[in-house]
Backbone:
């Protein structure tokens, strides 16, 4: 019995000890589970907030990418538009160049004929008595030749070959000179009901230009504007300054810098959209050809602006049309215009002159003009003949045609003569622009440049100025 009780008691204590260990283990497990739960909770919270920040970053990144894509898309569109505009400008320039080459050839052929039509009547009028019935028809022939010469001059402008010397001129003064001219007075008399305002406000108005061509531009634009407004409208001609930078709205077409802007605006019916892209093309006109214009007016404007390194912008609607011409401002002082002195009938003192020209008619015209005004004149038909003539018969002055065919041109002729006569005076004659050869001849010592066809007074003046420099 005693052993049995001892066994029972031992078993009880063993069970009690096991229960205590189980309770301790259970408590330990609960603690571990609690810690694990807290770790999971903190991990979840960390992941939650980290994920929210990540989502926000992703959203912001997407927004940034969208903005960048939109900016890139706008840049592509802008550059594509500029490329298309430049492509159109290049196409227009190539088209105008092709037309210009054709016009140049035509103008060159016409110039020789026009010299005879203009100059021979001049010489005939000197010999005809004032009472002669032939004076009126001869003068009419001369005036017709001068009008034709104006059209040829326009063709040469289109051909980028207008003979012109560019110097600093005040564009406000040139505009005012046109507004005071008989041509403008005649235009006003033809449109008595149209009003005209002038706002010449550009303070920096000196530009390097050919004054004759700038006045022609003003005349063409004013003629078109006043014809557009009719008897009840208004035309405004103005000037102002504008500084251009690359970010400016005009920057893609103009180099940065300061410009003098000439604007001509009218309140006429405007130019149709289908016409506005063609208005600068030669002979593209809505006027009656031969009656109200030659169809060259705006082509002359466009080519003159291009030649002067400027740009022209046109805006038109049913409320009117505006032309804005941008000229780079020159840093030089403007040349002061001096009125030409009248040429005396005999301004020479029997000085010896050699005319060098490959056209017999032009030789004869120059010889007759210069003989009439008091010079001793001889002529030859080529540069080679001129070189040989001067070796045997030195002269006071050469009048040399720049373009001669066949044989050497005016520059080569002058260079060869200078080797024997370093102080030889000369005038270069040409119907084309001051080309590189013309400029070089002037640098070598040629005292003047005269455009063909010339008037008697113009040639006499050029000769007198060169001889007495």
Residues:
């Amino acid at each position: 019995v005693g052993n049995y009780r001892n066994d029972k008691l031992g078993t009880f204590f063993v069970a009690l000890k096991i229960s205590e260990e189980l309770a301790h283990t259970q408590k330990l497990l609960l603690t571990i589970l609690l810690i694990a739960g807290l770790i999971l909770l903190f991990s979840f919270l960390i992941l939650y907030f980290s994920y929210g920040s990540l989502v926000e970053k992703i959203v912001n990144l997407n927004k940034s990418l969208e903005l960048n894509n939109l900016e890139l898309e706008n840049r592509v569109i802008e550059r594509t538009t500029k490329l298309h505009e430049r492509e159109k400008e290049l196409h227009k320039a190539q088209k105008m160049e092709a037309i210009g080459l054709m016009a140049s050839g035509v103008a060159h052929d016409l110039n020789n004929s026009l010299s005879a039509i203009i100059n021979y009547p001049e010489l005939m009028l000197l010999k005809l008595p004032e009472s002669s019935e032939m004076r009126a028809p001869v003068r009419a022939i001369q005036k017709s030749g001068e009008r034709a010469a104006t059209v040829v001059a326009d063709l040469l402008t289109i051909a980028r070959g207008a003979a012109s010397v560019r110097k600093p001129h005040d564009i406000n003064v040139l505009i005012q000179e046109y507004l005071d001219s008989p041509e403008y007075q005649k235009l006003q008399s033809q449109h008595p009901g149209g009003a005209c305002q002038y706002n010449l406000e550009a303070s920096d108005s000196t530009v390097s230009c050919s004054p004759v061509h700038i006045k022609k531009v003003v005349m063409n634009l004013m003629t078109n504007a006043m014809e557009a407004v009719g008897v009840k409208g208004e035309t405004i001609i103005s000037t102002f300054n504008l500084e251009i930078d690359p970010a400016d709205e005009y920057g893609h077409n103009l180099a940065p810098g300061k410009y003098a802007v000439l604007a001509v605006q009218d309140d006429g019916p405007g130019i149709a959209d289908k016409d506005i892209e063609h208005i600068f093309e030669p002979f593209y006109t809505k006027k009656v050809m031969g009656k109200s214009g030659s169809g060259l007016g705006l082509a002359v404007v466009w080519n003159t602006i291009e030649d002067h390194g400027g740009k022209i912008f046109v805006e038109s609607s049913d409320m009117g049309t505006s032309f804005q011409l941008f000229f780079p401002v020159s840093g030089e002082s403007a040349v002061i215009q001096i009125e030409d002195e009248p040429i005396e009938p005999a301004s020479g003192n029997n000085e010896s002159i050699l005319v060098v020209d490959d056209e017999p008619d032009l030789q004869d015209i120059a010889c007759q003009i210069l003989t009439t005004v008091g010079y001793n004149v001889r002529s030859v038909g080529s540069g080679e003949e001129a070189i040989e003539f001067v070796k045997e018969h030195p002269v006071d002055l050469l009048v040399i045609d720049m373009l001669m065919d066949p044989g050497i041109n005016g520059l080569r002729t002058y260079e060869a003569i200078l080797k024997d006569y370093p102080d030889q005076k000369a005038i270069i004659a040409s119907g084309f622009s001051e080309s590189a050869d013309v400029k070089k001849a002037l640098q070598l010592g040629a005292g003047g440049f005269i455009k063909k066809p010339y008037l008697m007074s113009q040639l006499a003046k050029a000769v007198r100025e060169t001889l007495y420099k």
Remarks:
- The radius of gyration is 43 Å.
